[in-house]
Amino acid sequence: MRIEQLLHFLDVAETLSITRSASNLYITPQGLSQSIVNLEREYGLTLFDRTKTGLALNSKGQAFLELARELYQQYTEFEQRVAALTAHPEAEGESFYLYLPPLLSQAAVLQPLVERLGEAFPSCDFRIREVDLDGALSLFARADRETNSLALTTMPDFTRDEVTRPPGSEVRTIITLPIVARMRKDAPLAGRKMLKRKELAEQPLVCFNEPVVESVLYELVKDYGEPNLVLKGTGQVLGLHKDAVAVGVDILGGDEDIVSVPIMDTVMIGLDLLYASDAPTLVTQIADEIYSFIKSYYKQ
Fold first, then answer.
1. Residue range 180-216, pLDDT digits in tens
2. Is the whole-model pTM more than 0.85?
3. Residue 246: phi, psi to the nearest 5?
């Protein structure tokens, strides 16, 4: 269970409404519903009774809620203690918090991007954190967020109009990339020029362990039933299953053993910058540098 899922469950347990909680958390109802379903699948529990009038916590859900509250309290204390440990009043330079989505943390562009930022802003002490889309939206909705901060987020096209942008924030799309099927060179479909969604649904599938990519996978095969998910993890797990197909974008760097095949009527995923509208000049300067660097790197 991720911290974001814990927060999702706690909010839904309070409101007993996916719609209201999605608004509270600045995520889509679809994404929140999938997060709760994934949580239930992970632990093999049904936490809510779903009726025509809405949601209701069942007995197992009530017991889970007590444990979740205890865990959240421990997490809050942990965050406070870590914040105390990472406070460096004697350090030179200005702290800057850069939040990255899990998918980008595996991308080949990350290391040269960080090096470029270090060269362009030598007085900044960059602190990089990994956070998914829901976490980034929630973070920038908080009044106590770090002033010197921005997030890079990944957002699929089918949820872009549904996502509620945090008040007082700016979203700037850098690039938009198609979702493709990735597989080993010796996989049965490796020689295909194009895959249909139905064909994709019939394959053993690998999913990168990140909520946005998982939602994309379900979107691609939703008309053909549940996906045959055989592996879930980082970009390296594809090599563990000869015949499996992964969905993703070609940003993970070169791998001679992996090929990409386009998907007909595919989903597009955008890489966006997210920062406060009233952010200091330093934030907008770093945002401009990231925008230019990634645009140049992927030649779009």
1. 998 888 888 888 999 999 999 999 888 877 778 888 8
2. no
3. -110, 150
CATH number of 3-85: 1.10.10.10
**In sequence order, which ranges of 183-243 are alpha helices (DSSP H)?**
197-201, 211-221
Q: Three-state SS for 267?
A: coil
Judge contact between 214 and 38, C-beta under 8 A: yes
Q: What is the CA radius of gyration of the chain?
A: 20
Q: How confident is the model over 111-132, as pLDDT tens digits?
A: 899 999 999 999 998 988 888 8
pLDDT for 91: 44
- 3-state helix, strand, coil split of the chain in percent (to 5) is 45, 25, 30
Query: Is the Cβ–Cβ distance between 133 and 154 less than 8 Å?
Result: yes
Chain center to CA of 62: 28
Identify the pLDDT of residue 86: 56
Average of per-residue pLDDT across 123-149:
85
- Of residues 201 and 105, more confidently modeled: 201
Question: Which ranges in the chain are annotated with CATH 1.10.10.10?
Answer: 3-85
* pLDDT the model gives residue 240: 53
Q: Specify the fold of 180-266.
A: D-Maltodextrin-Binding Protein; domain 2 (3.40.190)
- In residues, how long is the chain? 300
For CATH 3.40.190.10, the residue range(s) in the chain are 94-176+270-298, 180-266
Given a cut of 90, whether residue 275 has pLDDT beyond it is yes
Token match 């009530």: residue? 62
- Enter the tokens of residue 7: 């927060």
Whole-angstrom distance, CA of residue 52 vs CA of residue 56? 11
| CA atoms within 13 A of residue 182's CA, in its CB half-sphere | 24
Instruction: Look at domain 94-176+270-298 and name its CATH class.
Output: alpha beta
Rounded distance, CA 171 to CA 162, Å? 14
Contact 251, 108 (CB under 8 A): yes
Q: How far apart are the first and last CA of the chain?
A: 36
